[in-house]
Amino acid sequence: MPIDQITDAIRRVLNEGSRAGLITVAQSARLAVGGKMLVKANRETVGDLGDTALNRIAVEQASAFLTAREDAKMLVVSEFAPELPELANTSLLFERIETEPHLVIAGAGHVGASLARLAALIGYRVTLIDDRAEFVTRELFSATSEANIELISASDWAGAIKEAIGNGHGVAVAIVTRGHKQDEECLRAASSASPDYIGMIGSKRRTNIVLDKLREEGFDETGLKRVRAPIGLDIGAVSPEEVALAILAEIVAERRGGLGGSLSSWRRAALP
Prior knowledge:
elongated, 5-stranded parallel β-sheet, alpha/beta, 2 domains, Rossmann fold, 41% helix, 10 helices, 272 residues, 5-stranded antiparallel β-sheet
């Protein structure tokens, strides 16, 4: 298949805000090196690795690869398809194809601003929204690393949030506004748009008040249970910058499939 067809398929995946796995023959004595097949999230394929049986099995492997949330992985066919001994030493490169992760932040106070700067620094596309125009001026975000932060002064929280979320694929929403009213409005809009992650700042009492209000309005309980409230990992954060770090750590863990625990816990558990 011409490479242009693979390129066009990749472009469509990115434009749709979806995801796919690109498989490339990296080394093989039997197949043409460089052969490619794109496996979309719905298992639709574009391209050909050069072997019908391998194509079929590779679709399953690509689906598992996308679930694992790695960016790239090299696999030898013998590791996942021992029933194909003639291709045992063939190496395949699996690559994740998806748009850059997008963080929508509702509230540009100290925590929201710190979160926007930190997320932009690690490569997130960031949209920072506030209903106070003076909190989202470019002068406040003038560093080189902050140049791509999208700043939105919104008279309508719901409309701005829904537009920023789009189809929700690859999108995380952090609600860090200044009060119950704004929290409710933002959570209502975010829940309706179904992003990959929603978190809301506040105490247990404050967040429960907002969630109970949405329950009374008939919002789906399953969706509300997905809301991370209070938002973030428990790292003992105090300053706005530390709170931002705790929030972003949870967002990254959710995206990458991390557990959010200590990497050294196994060692400490083994100590007498």
